[in-house]
Design goal:
Length: about 260
């Protein structure tokens, strides 16, 4: 059995001392933060500009008919919209041959699923999020119950995954519905999927964006005042008007709500 000294020596060899930053005064720390904040704000503005470019991406008409198995039986790609104008589909790997089957989905896809925010906020912006895999619905239901996941999850039955670049690796596709017509508007995969899960990042990849007045969007795109459409996830209602009490809170806020900061 190793002595205390031997354990210390072994730990030092396996975990060499970290080369940590200097310890400074509160004033120096704040000065350093302000210096880095300039770059962080530039990165935020750059993300906003990138999202604005996404909203001007050309659309690809989806004329091929696709069929999925869902909780209520067979449905089409149009059915995945659940009546909303926008659809985001994440291709998750849960099927025979995937590490973890049949108890679990792919670890990376599961990690991503754990990040998904409450879907009511996306739905309030006329946007549906769905997951899709090749596992049968019975297995998907079992997995969702085990992992406490709430997103709608469909079974791919045809070439949807191959046609949209997600047959061999995960990825997130965005679609727009104009009546009965469906268009592919954007696609994110590889490390781009790391950022997904937040309501804001999902909306930023869609054709309509966050649909707020401060955004640089093409003419005619739906936009409402920022903050005012927010609600508790259990109190959104179709066609509900902005609560005047919350409106007053926003307008009287002491801190300036400036999205251009």
């Amino acid at each position: 059995m190793a002595t205390g000294k031997e354990r210390v020596v072994k730990n030092q060899k396996e975990n060499p001392a970290m080369n940590t930053p200097p310890i400074v005064s509160p004033e120096e720390w704040e000065a350093a933060r302000q210096q880095l904040l300039v770059k962080e704000k530039a990165a935020t503005r750059s993300r906003d500009a990138l999202a604005a470019e996404r909203r001007r991406m050309p659309w690809l008409a989806v004329d091929k008919k696709y069929e999925f198995d869902g909780p209520k039986g067979k449905t089409s790609l149009l059915g995945l919209f659940d009546g909303r104008r926008q659809l985001i589909v994440y291709r998750a790997f849960f099927e025979p041959g995937v590490f973890g089957w049949p108890e679990h989905a792919c670890r990376g896809c599961s990690f991503g699923a754990d990040q998904v925010a409450h879907l009511a906020h996306l739905n309030a912006r006329d946007t549906t999020l769905a997951f899709a895999s090749r596992a049968p619905q019975a297995d998907i239901d079992r997995l969702k119950a085990r992992m406490d996941w709430k997103m709608p999850w469909y079974t791919i039955t045809d070439s949807f995954d191959a046609d949209f670049g997600v047959n061999e690796w995960h990825g997130t596709n965005a679609f727009f519905r104009d009546g009965e017509r469906v268009f592919r508007t954007y696609f994110i995969n590889n490390r781009g999927d790391e950022a997904m899960g937040s309501t804001w990042n999902y909306l930023d990849m869609t054709a309509l964006g966050r649909q707020e007045e401060w955004e640089d969007s093409p003419a005619g795109y739906p936009q409402t005042p920022p903050y005012k459409w927010w609600n508790w996830h259990d109190e959104y209602a179709a066609e509900a008007s902005i609560d005047p009490r919350w409106n007053k809170v926003v307008e009287n806020a002491k801190v300036t709500l400036n999205l251009n900061d």
